[in-house]
Amino acid sequence: MLIKCAIVSPTMKKISLLLLLLIGFTTQAFNKKTTSPVTSLISKMSWLSEKFSINKEAIQYAIGGYEKLKKNGQLINLRYLTIADFSKPSSEKRLFIIDMEKMELVIQTLVAHGRNSGTLFAKAFSNRNESYQSSLGFYITGDIYRGKHGMSLQLSGIESGINDNAKQRAIVMHGADYVTEQLIKKQGYIGRSLGCPAVPQSEVKEIIQTIKGASLLYIYAPDNLYAKKSKLIIDPSLLG
Length: 240
What we know:
Order of helices and strands: HHHEEEEEEHEHEH
CATH superfamily: L,D-transpeptidase catalytic domain-like
CATH topology: L,D-transpeptidase catalytic domain-like
Largest sheet: 8 strands, mixed
Structural class: alpha+beta
Number of strands: 8
Shape: globular
Helix content: 25-40%
Distance between the termini: 67 Å
Oligomer: single chain
Strand content: 15-25%
């Protein structure tokens, strides 16, 4: 008994080949599909919070503001995001500088709050002159200069009614002899500033050189009044 073989025309072969290629590309695209930008951002926040022991809300607000200001073209030095987490006591290293490209913590150190904001913890905040309190919120770093504290970094508070008097109050980042581990051992907390986020003298040069030139600094504390007043903190689910 003879079995006749089906003869496939050249046209049919081309169609079959195209279908196979289409199926292959579709499968490849499906396999490479990643989570949405929003899901990725929320995951990134949780991961950073857990890895570096930063308050989860501080991370959420900071990265949300970073993304918003980045889209608005207000940041030039996009590489670094700095968070001062004032939910922690001043005896802990609560200044975090994060490399946003590598998702690495490049610097973690001590940082002072204003003397009228509290002793071990910063609990009171103000935008008023001569309040000697810290101001919460988002700041954009400026130029380096040499002042009475030596090498210092200008800060521009960008939240109206919250920290926009920073320049008038001479709120800058500078080194201070009262921000030391030795003082913590002696009295249980570091010294306090007149409102500036002062850092250890031994690290001020590295810190300033890293975050200068319009990078973002976010000073956080679990403060309900700030959360209601700020226009820059946003729900990460609204980011796209």
